[in-house]
Amino acid sequence: MKINKKKTMSQLRSLSIKSIALHIFFVMCCTIMLIGCTDKTEDKIKIGLSMDSLRVERWQKDRDIFIAEAEKLGAEVIVQSADEDPVKQNEQAENMITQGVDVLVVIPKDSVASSQIVKSAHAEGIKVIAYDRLIRESEPDLYISFDNEQVGYLQAEYLFRKKPKGNYFLLGGDPGDNNAHLLREGQLRALQPAIDSGDIKLVAEGKHWAVNWDRKNALNSTEQVLTQTNNQIDAVVASNDGTAGGVIKALEGQNLAGSVLVSGQDADIEACQRIVKGTQTMTVYKPIQLIATEAAKAAVALAKGETIEKANQTVNNGKTDVPSIILTPIQVDKDNLDKEIIEGGFHTREKIYQTQ
Ligand code: BGC
Q: Which atom of ligand 1 is nearest to the CA of 177?
């Protein structure tokens, strides 16, 4: 018994020495891991995403997909939304520069005011990507967007195929957004021959631009034009789905929804529902997954000082030829809605057809 007890005591002693050693080893491992982690956070690429606004449905998707891809690539993203205020956007960007971002991705509210962001960032050696909308009067390092002139062309071309003669109302987007002007160029490219021949007459020509892409502004403009023309409008080339919503509301007020053609852009859920219902004629779908993932990849690459292989063309912004990635938009109507939007996973069948 005694011998056994002694054995147990010495066993216990050696056990406690072992456990102390293990404990020390464990603490050392944790410390090393912690140091490793801290280093990693410091090494992480920091991307600043400066957004005009989150009001239009698509921008939330842009943000979420961009962040997910950037994080997948090991970067962290700081997001700021300027609520459609160019001064606020510049301040937020300055703030992100101070926070030490490695690269700035900007969706500019105003194509000219945002040039200050590029200048301030460059002064600190930070590269800038103009996302979806071009920044003018400066030298952004990359522009990534869809072919916006082509978006405008697809909008007007579709309506023109349905109605080759008649009164057309062209409702522009926000005048401070470079895209709004590219869209107009494309819309006119589709309609000009018929305007010249007199088959198409533009009503309230060039007078209506929906400030902030606001649907209320679109509604007011459409109401005015309906009154001025005594409801003699055959087609409204609305530049995006949000403003198309305002146009259709005004048309509903005159029992004209469904008989006047209306275009759009973005494949917003409400626009898809209206296409099914027949009050909106078409939309232009721009796969957000594509632009957001490509932009995140480009941001990480620029932060690492790499060149962007995919930027195989340039777009002139009035000051310089900006290296650009230009993606292809897709015309969508009720016939290819299922294929492009549902099968493509942009919206679910349940959501689109729920109003039926
Ligand atoms: C974008 C559109 C969007 C609009 C309003 C444009 O610059 O290209 O997709 O609907 O802004 O946010």
A: 7
